[in-house]
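Q: Here's a chain of 119 amino acids. Please give me its 3D structure as tokens.
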Amino acid sequence: MARIRPSRVAEQIKKEITDILYHELKDPRIGFVTITGVEVSRDLQHAKVFASVLGSDEEKALSLEALQKATGFIRSEVGRRIRLHHTPEIVFKLDTSEDYSQRISHVIRQLQGERGDRP
């Protein structure tokens, strides 16, 4: 029997969760959420799902809370859609890489502006 690679399972989970978010969940607290990545453990027992949320810190917190409350439903849907021996436990994490990259860009622009002012 061929072994299923965690990276392939992670991509499939990402695809299915994205579809579930857009077509199945009707929670108004879930704002503009994008699933940016999924990390699956080697034994396929655990999956960290990284979500990027557009909006204020309060909106991000509400969206993450709504995702965490819907974890059971999402996990059961993923299990129904992907035929695995065991459906991974899903944990949602807020992806802050976009905020970090914006902060770095802002600092670089400031430094370039200071450098441009010098003779």
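Q: Can you summarize the key feature?
A: The chain has one domain: 6-117.
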